[in-house]
Automatic annotation (TrEMBL):
This is Serine hydrolase domain-containing protein. Residues 26-342 form the Beta-lactamase-related domain. PANTHER family: D-ALANYL-D-ALANINE CARBOXYPEPTIDASE, D-ALANYL-D-ALANINE-CARBOXYPEPTIDASE/ENDOPEPTIDASE AMPH. Gene3D superfamilies: DD-peptidase/beta-lactamase superfamily. It comes from Streptomyces boetiae.
Length: 465
């Protein structure tokens, strides 16, 4: 029997959007430009690794293709800096729990760990020493000793999230120290060139947009300065284009082993600072902002510099991303615009699930582990996933779920939620049969309080009555 995938009627090219979806996206962009009163707004949607819609509204350099015009991307630069640090980690040149001072003679923040700097939990001040660093030349802060003001440490290390631009200046200096080259040189060689981001640069290269401040109460504007921020560059210096950022979004969704693999990118998307309560809306990972909205978690980063705002969001589960750029200091809320464009496509054209097929020769011993297990009296389901991974699913209230990846010693390690980093171990009896699952010391048995299983505290000898 020949297997075929059923392919529904689709637009001209696989992945293209329906005309009514494109019209809705165009309307959303036009509304953002008009109500946000920005000289120009550009946006793109990426699906399946390619740009499926892009548009521009407003004034652009004469004769320039919209996707080639540079805009300043502000703190989106931080994600690029984080990639350089995580490459150092993958190459064994540092660990996330190393203290900054182990590698760099930093005047401030030396006791903070690399992870704390990446996740803004080092307790450092939010801004560099005055005057306003985003509008003044970096020559005013030539050395690391000049970056921080009189109160560099505002909170104890590791206790709370406090966004810190100078913290990323320290990470850029760390990259320079370990690579022996300027941050921008390392970035171009290790990230920009492999990904083909030829129009992403530290200084503007024509064609580029001018940055504007728009009067809040009149239809008037004045230009904003575009300075080289020097030591603060790793926190917000980069210029990029809609085309480059769409390609970068595709990388953030799928990874590229020449730069950073999918597994490391997935780790960047994990909340690193504890979210505030169960209803959290935003938090931070390893160089990525996380936003919970409309039932999905988006990962990316926003950015602003005088005259410019930018945002890039990805939704890995839907293989979708959106980018939005504008050239006004307090222009349209591009973070909401990018999220709204992504959600519009996801709602109107949800992806088809992949065709189900049986896996390649499931291990009978692992298959025998699947099914219902009980923590005390509460049921949970155990499923076998590809690659010998396991999924513990609550079958009712009271059980925490997680995926577990196989380890070399025959155990499994949790990768999310309460059990992240915890060990799942199969407890076998004298016959070799599985009697229980030990999940971080929580024991699951095949029957509620199974008297024949190694149950902590044992079962009552009279049993159920």
């Amino acid at each position: 029997m020949t297997q075929t995938d059923e392919t529904p009627t689709s637009p001209e090219t696989p992945g293209d959007l329906l005309p009514e979806t494109r019209r809705a996206l165009d309307h959303r962009l036009a509304t953002a430009q008009a109500t946000g009163r920005a000289p120009s707004v550009l946006a793109a949607v990426v699906r399946g690794g390619r740009t499926v819609w892009s548009a521009a509204r407003g004034e652009l350099p004469e004769g320039a293709r919209p996707e080639d015009v540079q805009y300043r991307i502000g703190s989106l630069t931080k994600t690029f800096t984080a990639l350089l640090v995580l490459r150092l980690r993958e190459q064994g040149l540092l660990a996330l729990d190393d203290r900054l001072g182990d590698h760099l003679p930093a005047p401030h923040g030396a006791r903070a760990t690399v992870a704390q700097l990446l996740t803004h939990t080092a307790g450092l001040a939010a801004e560099a020493r005055g005057p306003w660093w985003e509008r003044t030349p970096g020559a005013l802060r030539p050395e690391l000793t000049d970056v921080f003001g009189e109160a560099p440490q505002l909170h104890p290390h590791g206790l709370r999230f406090h966004y810190s631009n100078p913290g990323y200046a320290l990470l850029g200096a760390l990259v320079e120290r370990l690579r022996g080259e300027p941050w921008s040189t390392v970035l171009r060689r290790e990230v920009l060139e492999p990904l083909g981001l030829e129009r992403t640069t530290a200084l503007p290269a024509p064609p580029h947009a001018a940055g504007w401040a728009v009067h809040p109460h009149a239809d008037a504007r004045q230009p904003e300065p575009a300075v080289d921020t020097g030591r603060m560059a790793p926190a917000g210096q980069l210029w990029s284009t809609l085309g480059d950022l769409a390609a970068f979004a595709g990388f953030l969704l799928r990874g590229d082993d020449r730069v950073l693999g999918a597994k490391s990118l997935a780790a960047m998307r994990e909340p690193a600072a504890p979210p505030e309560g169960p209803g959290w809306e935003s938090c931070y990972g390893l160089g990525l902002q996380l936003l919970r909205r409309e039932g999905r978690v988006l990962a990316g980063h926003s950015g602003s510099m005088p005259g410019f705002v930018a945002c890039l969001w990805t939704s890995p589960e839907e293989d979708l991303a959106a980018v939005a750029l504008a050239n006004a200091t307090s222009g349209p809320p591009v973070a909401s615009l990018a999220a709204g464009l992504l959600e519009l496509v996801a709602r109107r054209e949800p992806p088809l699930p992949p065709v189900w097929r049986p896996g390649p020769g499931a291990d009978p011993e692992l298959t025998a582990l699947t099914g219902t297990w009980y923590w005390g009296t509460v049921p949970a389901g155990l499923r076998l996933l590809p690659g010998r991974a396991l999924l513990l699913e609550p079958a009712g209230g009271g059980v925490r779920g997680s995926r577990f990846l196989p380890a070399a010693d025959g155990t499994w390690t949790g990768i999310e939620g309460y059990y992240a980093g915890e060990t799942l171990r199969v407890v076998r009896g004298a016959s070799g049969a599985a009697e229980a699952l030990d999940v971080g010391t929580f024991v699951f048995t095949r029957r509620p309080y199974d008297p024949g299983a190694p149950l902590p505290g044992g079962a009552d000898p009279e049993g159920w009555r």
